[in-house]
Amino acid sequence: MRVFNFNGGPAALPVEVLEQVAAEMLDWRGVGMSVMEASHRSKEVAAMTAEAEADLKELLGLDGGWRALFLQGGASLQFAMIPMNFAPDGAPCDYVDTGLWSTKAFQEAKICGADARLAASSAEDKFVFIPSEFDFRPQARYVYLTSNNTVRGTQWSSFPQDAPAPLTADMSSDFLSRPLDLTKFSLVHAGAQKNVGPAGLTIVLIRPEFAATGRSGLPHLLDYRTYIESDSMYNTPPVFAIYVAGLVFKWLKGTMGGLAAVERRNRVKAATLYGAIDGSGGFYRGAARPDSRSLMNVTYRLPSEALEMTFLAEAKKAGFDGLGGHRSVGGVRASLYNAVELKAVEALAAFMAEFARKNG
Ligand SMILES: *Cc1c(COP(=O)(O)O)cnc(C)c1O
């Protein structure tokens, strides 16, 4: 039996996609083997990868001024690749610190020798909100932010319009959860395992013009131009993960009806759960400031840590998986990625009401 999966990542995938993967496991596209066994230089894998890029760009409405690339190394490698390419030799770059992953990205930029500085931070308030005022430097080569803070449960609802440099963002945990206006952006990265597919794949959207401004002389795999010039095939790419992500893109375009429809559905799911929290008479308390609440990762607390332990244990027994908060903060976190169905969220809300009634 499948559980209600609220994992933070790796996380729920659409059943329809998993069924197709199962059906094609022994013979993919009539080649007489699974996609994992096919050469990445075969015309079928090349076509599949090109199709995945085209579907992804179509979903996001990206024009010829963008490439969608398939890398490895996780979102964490992007923390280093971005400064290595775009802020070499102590060049300035501005960061917005909204929690664990952006803190790591900022520290990594310093390790890479960039003159990285914070343009805003919500650290002093335990990262419960998204800043709205920024101290950008005009000479910054780029501005870096994290669109959705998986650990704290905060999310940018709109992005700075007045930044003096191109925006770059880690969108790992809300990628493809809503339509995106990328006008001000030059690079977006996302680890696949939150909202797109299996671990092992990192998606990078980049403007080739921006890539061209990168420092030269980097090792091939650390230079974005390598992936652009080779259509993400310089070395063996994560073929299976690209295959599954490609099926998810088709599911988003087809069954789900595109990103505007996906966002509407995600808003209903989030409203259902925040409604259960806010309507509990204070038994459950949302961890993020209401104006910064994430539609993807809903974080909340109970009256005591002991009750939180009981809640998590009973939830697990009742078939709700992955509700423990990130190990750095504790509490409860329900991740409502695209593949999490409304009925799972409604079941969780009902379970929470019953738990509060018994323990309140
Ligand atoms: C999970 C996560 C990461 C880390 O991703 P890896 O692929 O494990 O490196 C980075 N940023 C955000 C926003 C995340 O949610």
Please describe the topology of this protein.
Elements: E1 4-5, H1 15-23, H2 43-60, E2 67-71, H3 74-86, E3 92-97, H4 100-111, E4 115-121, E5 143-146, E6 148-149, E7 154-155, E8 167-170, E9 185-191, E10 202-206, H5 208-211, H6 224-229, H7 239-253, H8 259-278, E11 285-286, E12 297-301, H9 305-317, E13 320-321, E14 332-335, H10 342-359
Parallel strand pairs: 1-13, 3-4, 3-5, 5-8, 8-9
Antiparallel strand pairs: 2-10, 6-7, 9-10, 11-12, 12-14
Helix pairs in contact: 1-7, 2-7, 3-4, 8-10
The chain binds pyridoxal-5'-phosphate.
Description of the molecule:
It is a single chain. With 360 residues, the protein is α/β, with parallel strands linked by helices. It has helices at 15-23, 43-60, 74-86, 100-111, 208-211, 224-229, 239-253, 259-278, 305-317, 342-359; strands at 4-5, 67-71, 92-97, 115-121, 143-146, 148-149, 154-155, 167-170, 185-191, 202-206, 285-286, 297-301, 320-321, 332-335. The chain folds into 2 domains: 15-253, Type I PLP-dependent aspartate aminotransferase-like (Major domain) (Aspartate Aminotransferase, domain 2), CATH 3.40.640.10; 258-359, Aspartate Aminotransferase, domain 1. The strands form 4 sheets. The protein has a 7-stranded mixed β-sheet, with helices on both faces. Helix 2 (43-60) packs across helix 7 (239-253) and helix 3 (74-86) crosses helix 4. The longest helix has 20 residues, at 259-278. It is globular and about 60 Å long. The protein binds pyridoxal-5'-phosphate. Residues 9, 74-76, 101, 146, 150, 170, 172-173, 191, 194 line the site of pyridoxal-5'-phosphate. The site of pyridoxal-5'-phosphate has 12 residues, from helix 3.
